[in-house]
Amino acid sequence: MVITMDLLIQDVMIIPEPDTTRIFRANIVIEDNIISTIAPNAKIPDPEFILKGKSLVALPPPINSHTHLPMTLLRGYSDNKTLMDWLQTIWEIEGKFDAKWIELGTRLACLEMMKAGTGGAADFYFHESKIGNVLEEAGIRGWLGAGILPSAFVDQGGYEFQLDELKRAIELAKGSSLLKASIAPHSQITVPEEIILKAADLAESYQIPLMIHASETRKEVMDSEDKYGVPPVERLDQIGFFREGTKEIIAHCTWITQREVEILGKHQATVGWCPVSAQKLAYGGVTPVPELRTAGAHVALGTDGTASNNTLDLWREMREASNVISASRWDPALYSAEQVLEDTCWSFRRNFHSESLIKVGNQADLVILNFQAPHLQPLHNIISNIVYAANGSDVHSLIVNGKLLMNNRQISTLNETKILEETEDKIEELL
Ligand SMILES: [Zn+2]
Fold it and tell me: What is the pLDDT of residue 225?
């Protein structure tokens, strides 16, 4: 059962902005899914639910900027391979994914995300209407990236089915306060140009975000240069992918030139970078996050799917994100803890759902961490502890759109035991 009643969060440390100097202690009152008061002694006459504790820290829940939720069923299925070898093994088994597996994989993913305090995800897959139903049931936010890849899911209807799924995702999102539809052509080397442009047209006419993978590996960049004379992001710009008024989410951008950085900045695109997956698949490149931020692109952290990560835990991802920039660039100050936290808990939200930032009058989205743990003490710097020392199991509670979805690690919307048992029992059947 979802707890939808009025909530009082007492004496909690609040991080309203990714800035150590702005942190303060207060009470938060949530009424009818809205933050109604933030003040030291704020109260409501009969709160139906109270969360309190001196060691609790509240901030906006992370949003996963790029993932493939149903692929959670393939965690650990194919490790230690290069992208192309890995894709071959994954595509073989993915061909068996029908609605039943999509739903089970998404349920497992939602459970994992909620346990790690993730408040929403920009998903990129097929059957997005089924995925949206599960996200709605779980109670977290979803940007449903209806995948477009004519060569995929051919026996389920291929391209026509994918366009139908987009329409279903759009319909589903209309009646939901948590879901937004979007369209997601796979990449500029796997999808024909006219279909990529058709997707951009649809994004423009429906006013929905446009997602794509780009410059994931050096091979992809070299193939694009051989075939079209320019690298992927530059080609997308040349063919007219970026549109005034359309918000793009470009996944990876591991191997991009400074000219492409400027293109992404000019269009104020969101780059969903996934450092753990990129390192594990040995891409060799590192997304030029500092340059992208300077150029005016939005940078947002993602995990990619668990088939290549192998977790959806964005707190662990943050630590890797910061360290990989420091290690590869020989400069520990190039991407600070505050900036990493901003790109995980604020950046995507500011750009795609600013009405859920921590502010009186806004929809209440809060993740509450419990700092009563040896690895999170002492408190010289809360943001440093979050980025470099915390992990998903430090999440105490999760509130999305004013609903207490998890309290003291107990999830109220999904049946955790049942989902875990079902996964264990049925996985053989998929293999
Ligand atoms: Zn991806």
Answer: 97
Residue pair 122/66 in contact (Cβ under 8 Å)? The answer is: yes
Bridging pattern class, strands 410-411 and 63-67: unpaired
Distance between Cα 125 and ligand 1 center (Å): 9
Tell me: the pLDDT tens digits for 73-90?
999 998 998 888 888 898
Provide the whole-model pTM.
0.97
pLDDT at 309: 94
The Å distance, Cα 261 to ligand 1 centre, comes to: 20
Distance 254 CA to ligand 1 centre (A): 12
* Rounded CA separation 180/174 (Å): 8
CA distance linking residue 251 with residue 18, whole number of Å? 23
CA of 364 to the centre of ligand 1 (A): 29
68 C-alpha to ligand 1 centroid (Å): 7
Instruction: Give me the domains of the chain, ranges plus CATH numbers.
Output: 7-60+355-411 (2.30.40.10), 63-352 (3.20.20.140)
Cα pseudo-dihedral 259, 210, 297, 383, rounded to 10 = -140
